[in-house]
Amino acid sequence: MPSNKSSTHDPRKGEWDGTPIEQWEPSKWKQWKSKHSASDEGAKIEREYLRIKHAVQQANFALSLDRVKIKLKLTSDKSIGLQGTFPCKPGDIGKNSSPNRQYTISFGFVANDAGVKTAVIKARELDLSLMTKQFQWTPYLLGKQAQKIELLDEEKPARLIRELIEEYEKEFWKTHENNRQGICTWESHYMRHLKKLPQDVPMSLDALEEALKKTKPNTSARFFLAWQLKKFCKFCGVNGFKTINTYATPKPNPTIRKVPLDEEILQGFLKIGMPLSAYASKDNMTQPEQWQWAYGMLATYGLRPHELFAVDVEAFLKTANTFHLVTLNPSLTEGTKTGERSCGIPPLHPHWVELFDLKNIRFPYNQGKLSNKTAKIHIKFRTSGIGFSPYDLRHAYAIRGHRLRVPIKTMADYMGHTVQEHTKTYQRWMNEDANLEIYQEVVIHRQGITKEALKSIISELEAENNALKAENATLKGLLIQHQLGELLS
């Protein structure tokens, strides 16, 4: 019978002639000589450890030949586990947001010949479940972790998606200010996508698929939905990355926007002031001048639609405001999108202030929340048949600044965002026609010569050239007559 000391001996700490056992080639297990005598129980345990380690190596080599990706691993001197890349456990996330991660699963296989054989069978079984996409994390595979995951706890009822979203929102407000900007972020970047999920069912892969099918492939809606669902799954501890990735689409390039010309903007001013009999509402029938004022402010100052209601009217009407600058008061709208402007906003076409009668303040009758007020502006643009949106007036303001050679940093300040955002968002709307017009204005007009002026100068030069030719012909005739007279005399 072995002694208590030898039975608790850890062979992994064995050493022979200065060489640790873990650095010894397992295939040479028979040659291993322990510091213990050959008949000592400790020496036998160490050689048996090397023999099983060699058996594990041979088993893994055979599995590799059969292209089985799950491998055996000695998790201790007495047990064998299985190591491989599996779908992430609930609550886990792979490297670089990968849906997969490497795990070592312990099945309690004893480190002996029978344990090796049983582990090989289980490795092939797991590999087949991965290949056929049937693998699932069961409480048996999760072991103790299953007790910590509510999703797998059958004794507790699964929470509904709407309940999970409520908890998700609570987490959101821990890192965001509860103001207009925060509310806008939650509604547009979070809830806008999460509401596509079925609300009164537990979280599941089917629920994710139902939401994803509501968007079209290769669209921004699909791209941002997939992005938000991954964040939500991570919060819920649900491994839905694989399902989401099957529907995910790369971020599409933005559609080229048709930015209205100044002439089209002036036509839109007239259209928005026309009452629409087909829409017999108070907004459409009784306040054409109010809508024209709102339209003129958006066109002249490049405001975001909601910023119209943040205009500091008192400062705008001051007689000292000779440059007709507009300043915004975020407190009027519980904060603007990007905070206060660092400067007043000038009209790039100053004559539009008088043309649109902007100093005669006439806010449209527009009650309710700020989001409702802003929505009504978009609706009015659409029902008036203007042909472009309120934001298109903002893009036109940006391009107008480029035509007038306003520095990019200054334009970014006027529009209330960074230079990077200005360059990325607005310069892409400058199509070939806009760029050509800017070239004509900056280069040709800078030289004080328009296309019409060039034609006039060319005509004058041609007339002068013809006159010189006629005068030259006359002089030649006189010269010939003079020469003939001398010969005759």
From TrEMBL:
In terms of Gene3D superfamilies, this protein maps to: Intergrase catalytic core (1.10.443.10)
Acetylation as a keyword? no
According to UniProt, the name of this protein is Integrase
Alphabetically ordered keywords of this record: Coiled coil, DNA recombination
Region Disordered: start-end pairs: 1-37
Task: Give a yes or no for keyword Coiled coil in this entry.
Answer: yes
Q: Which residues form a coiled coil?
A: 451-478
Give GO terms: molecular function aspect only. DNA binding
Q: Where is the Tyr recombinase domain?
A: 256-440
Q: Where are the transmembrane segments?
A: none
- Amino acid composition bias (Basic and acidic residues), ranges on this chain: 7-16
Annotated GO biological process: DNA integration; DNA recombination
